[in-house]
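Input for the complex:
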Amino acid sequence: MTEAVGARTLIGRSAARRIELVHWVVAAAVAVALWVVPLFASRFVTGQVARILVFGIAALGLDLIWGYTGQLSLGHAAFFGLGAYATGLVLVHLGNVPAAGLLAIVAGVAVPTTLAYLMARTLIHGNVTGAYFAIITLLVSLILEQLATTLIGITGGINGLYGMAPIRIGPWELWGLLPSYYTIVVCALVAYAIARRLVRSPIGRAMEGVRTNEQRTASLGYPTSSVRTIAFVVGAAITGLAGMLYVPLEQFVYPTQLGVLLSTSIIVWVAIGGRRSLVGPFIGAFVVSYGQSLLSDRLQQYWVLATGVFLVVVVLTQPRGLVGLVSTAVRRVRGHREER
Amino acid sequence: MTALLEARGLVKRFGGLRATDGVSLAIEPGEVRCVIGPNGAGKTTLFNLLTGHLRPDEGEILLDGERIDVLPLHEIARRGLVRKYQVPSVLPDVSVSENIRLAAAGRRRLSDLLRERADDRDRAEATLEELALDGLADRIAGQLSHGELQRLEIAMVLAAQPRVLLLDEPTAGMTVEETGRVATMLRAIAERRGLTLVIVEHDIAFIKMLGDRITVLHEGRVLAEGPHAEIEADPLVRRVYLGEGL
Amino acid sequence: MTTVLNGLTLAAVLSLVAIGLAVIFGLMRVINMAHGEMFILGSYTVVAAWEATGNVWLGIALAPFVVGAIGWAIERTMIRRLSGRLLDTLVATWGLSIVIREGLKVVFGAGSRNLPFPFTGDLTVLGTRYPLYRLFLIALAVVVMATVLWVFLRTDFGWKVSAVTQDREMAMAMGIDAGRIDAAVFALGAGLAGLAGAVMTPLITLNPEVGLFFLARSFLVVIVGGVGSLLGTAAGAGLIGMGQAALAASFRPVIAQIVLLVLAIVIIRLRPTGLFGRLQG
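Predicted:
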């Protein structure tokens, strides 16, 4: 009896290892496929893919917070825009300083991460979570957007930042389509790997615990405020990274990158792709952006309206998004097979 | 002998009601203590106080001589005081084995939690087998029956390696057979690991199988305390609680 | 003195908007992110009526009923289906707010517009000349708030609302139809926001984006005043309205908002139930 059980668990472990292997083979294949895109596709298509990946990274950050930890961040574009502005401001105002390129990249991630940490320290550790926290993130993003529009001397106001010095680190220049594209592919993979590592670690289980049963999780010994903080700060850092990457790609930083509309888009990407799935955010960003590109010019004005409709419909009918839909279907097919 | 878990003069008021009214307890290492009392006697409130879910208005709680009634929930658990809830409390969205693995790593430092330790995982698997849950390992916890959930939560609190385990009606909703099995198993595990158990129960048969000493609560106070036979013979206890049942 | 009166005007309007937000949250544990859109729907009701008839009063009279009906419909079709899922309700109503905002842009255009005052003229208050319409607005808010207070404290309906707020299951066991109470309160909250939007129409440069700013300020009011307390909401509105007016007199608006947000965060840390909210279980 015990032997049989032992054998069972061992098989369980090796099966898990095999699934893990298959997963990384698939991931590597996707990465290679993305790597060769510029060789075949037009500049326009390459740019589109780069943009979708950036959006996917941004959504991945929210997914860690909202999907896994159940903590909604309504103004998540604050971290995206702050990443973009931090990078952009360094390039505009400190472009001649030595190591400006490195500084710009570091600032692009560090500034949003710091804001997230401060918010977590003051709010989460004071037991301000749930809806109040979500609303305060929204207010923060509204204020940042206003700051960006009104501090014209520093941020260029509504016109934003342009004509920046390129990001240079030694001989390497991160600017324009192709260098940005390759950097974005690498960063997407790295962000995905980091998120996966976190989610599958005991901390990731505690994140699930915080979402579904905080009391139980705490009474097993987990400091739940710290778990929330980790998820929020890592999620904000990943979204900040996306904002930073957007600068060399677009060579332009503007206030709406901080604002309500982008925040909502990020929520939509996660909701449509599927919460609690790490590929979901990328799928959501792809489906939504591709859908938008199919619309004729005349219909583009209704795009934001459609975004709102999507949000309502997804939440009402399919809270786990496309990935949830597919995995339910797969399970159903498998169930039928096993019955036979 | 010094007590492992000690409560001194605990008082908890809800409005005008004194749900706990000057309760003192001393539980020694390795002891199995049952807490009984009629409904409304303050058993669950006492448990909530001991585990940090409620803060006492007066009195103090000591674990190994250290005050724990001022600590947050997770710090109390980290010091080895773990609780099983009356209504089974698990994570409904993840599998049975994930639940137990969560519990097994609960007392690690945060910085040790980025990678699962092999010994935590081994312990989780051993507990899974110990409670005969290995057949359900990959089932999502939310789909289990009530009895299975009870077993899962017991597995979780055991995997958390407590020094003192508080069980709030661990056999509620179980069949007579299951109850007997759980009692035997808890006794065995407690003896093997030197575990200290504090149990709230209604089931007299269960208490007879398990308890070393019994504390009888009534209207927020300790009415009597002693070995089973003594409690059974106590005329006061018979009158307020046990009635004709014994 | 003008600053004080400006603050009072803003406080009056904010109390009308925030009261719905606070009562709905207290009753149903629902945060209606489309509440700012209830405000602008009131404004656009006035615009539509004015364009059709040239009469501003007609729109102001219609707005609370039109918007109340919309609120009722939202509760029946959407909120009800998400009961108990606070964050999902938040997201769904957020989606709805976009739909309404963009829908208004399609119907009325995205541009800003200004409407004439239904009457003009100034009055001297304590030595300061102040527009009569703003004084009317303050008085109206006081009357409406007093009425609302009376409804919640002195009527059978108000008694039922507080019964459901305190213990939904117990209230239902006593034969109260909690679902109808939800719908009625949601309609009432929306209607009051609609009224606020309607009377504010001549004072603001109206465009569909305005709702968001009133939503943001109402949140500050609710955080400061606490939920489930009508007087708390009124006091919170007073504090935020006066604070906004005082700060806006000497700083940029964005600075005023930062200060108010920081203030709200400090308050929420020190007193999670708001300055005036009752501490409950």
